[in-house]
Amino acid sequence: MFKRLVAAVLGGGLFLCLQGAVWASSGEAETETEESAYILYDVNDGRLEEADSYLPEQIDRQRAERIWRVFAAIVPAKQLLRVQEYYVNGPENEGGASVIPVDDGLHTWQLSIDEKSVDLQTREDMENLAFLLIHELGHIITLNHEQVDADYSACQQRIELDEGCARQGAYINRFVQQFWTPEMLAAVKNQTAAAVISERYAGHFLDEYAATNPVEDIAESFSVFVEEEHPEDCRVSVAEQKICFFYGFSELVNLRTQIRAGVAEL
User: Fold this and answer.
1) Predicted model pTM
2) Alpha helix ranges (H) inside 181-237
3) How do beta strands 109-114 and 83-89 pair?
4) What is the pLDDT of residues 91-100, one digit of tens each?
């Protein structure tokens, strides 16, 4: 089983609403300080073009670009086109990885990574990096404009995110309805620690971080769906059912096959 790394979605904190209950992510990612080094790349057809930087000498450019090449190698073309910016933050920001929308319509996204937060020495390191990047891809797949309507007036009884309202047939809408009880949602709303939620609902989460909120849960479950084999018995636990959930969508099964082929070539 691959090492499950912490990754977070940025963007003012994720706020979700279901049936009138609003909750926020219980763990906010670190924000960049004014003095932090960074390199911002524009992405055109998968190729990087430096757009801006601050103290770039503090960043290992070759290492940062190697991480991008791993991402580009494992992400199919249609999904890669959604990523229009690549932001590399420096040694003062130990933020792991994140994604944020570039445009208000949720069509294009920025991938951000602390290049010093991951190792690239061994095959296991590369697989762990792949898991981390697939987690971030999971956010893009579940939060893009095809899944989320940026118009908040359309929410009604659907899930409300910081980016907008989940569409009726959205993956995350179905995921929450199937796996998150009102009591769980209330715990997140009250900013109960993920460790407490995970322990309280043993067998419901693939790891402690997945209990942070439904957005992280679906992304973490997607990563395991891609990286690991089909569970022998989906009835063993709710956590196993979450992996099996994705097999109900032929487009995600095809995407899994493509990503796994890319990982195998690393």
Assistant:
1) 0.86
2) 182-189, 194-200, 214-227
3) parallel
4) 655 668 999 9
